[in-house]
Amino acid sequence: MSAATTDRVLPPVGRVCRTRAWVELKEFFRQRESVVFTLMFPVILLLALGAVLDYDIGFGVTFPQYFMAGVISAGIVGASLQNMAINIAGERSDGTLKNLAGTPMPKSAYFVGKVVQVLAVSAATIAILLVIGVLVYGVDLPSGEDWLTFGWVAVLGAAACTLLGIAVSTLARNSRSASATVTPIALVLEFISGVFLPFNQVPTWLQTSASLFPLKWMAQGMRSVFLPDALAAREPAGSWELGRVALVLGIWCVVGLVLCVRTFTWQDRGVR
């Protein structure tokens, strides 16, 4: 069969991407452990810490109101960086990636499927957290243009963390070692990025370290839509710095893409 004939019988790339995205979503929601950890862990954090640390941090803002920005950021990190690194490492280890690479499926469809999965899971996580925040703690939702800021911060943050997750997946030989490697790193970044406590209470040297990574900037962007402008004075620069938030997250998207291109492999290192 000629190459021209083979090309004609292959389905359009768009259809392949949609099919792959649907497969990724079904596979994710069939894995109970992944669903519970990714979707429910941020919810448990919100319920537990919100109940224990329900105090006023200033300007009439309760801790649950402040924590909403952080826990949403943590939920996005869980759905993107952690989920991608662990799942892709497992698929590489059990030969799934090698088998997919040997099929006529465009390799880009695999990554499109992963991105759709991250966006869908992130959206579900955010929706659940917002509903619980409003019903349980009376959290005030963003209004007006704040929703636009909320949207681009979430999308840019998810994109940067997804690309980093794909790149980090090459550091582990299987899903178990990936979980042991990525989860502690994510937790440390969450602690120093103002996810679990007000960022101004983090030691200065840790604030500087956190500013090198996208999570700090995503959490800062989220705080700008859930907190009054008066609390911007407690940020290191004395403002929300939304322009810099967009710039840093955009840079991390480029860096993550370069890392993916240079490091991603379809089979374990050392396997031919």
Question: Can you give me a brief rundown of this structure?
Answer:
It contains 11 helices and 2 strands. The protein is an all-alpha fold and 272 residues long.
Fold topology:
Blueprint: H1 3-9, H2 13-30, H3 32-52, E1 56-58, E2 61-62, H4 63-93, H5 96-101, H6 107-137, H7 146-168, H8 175-192, H9 204-210, H10 214-226, H11 242-263
Helix pairs in contact: 2-6, 3-4, 3-6, 4-6, 4-7, 4-8, 4-10, 6-7, 7-10, 7-11, 10-11
Give a written overview of the molecule.
With 272 residues, the protein is mainly α. The chain contains eleven helices and two strands. Strands 1-2 form a two-stranded antiparallel ribbon. α2 packs across α6 and α4 runs antiparallel to α6. The longest helix is centred in the N-terminal third of the chain and has 31 residues. The chain is globular, with a radius of gyration of 20 Å. 38% of the residues are buried.
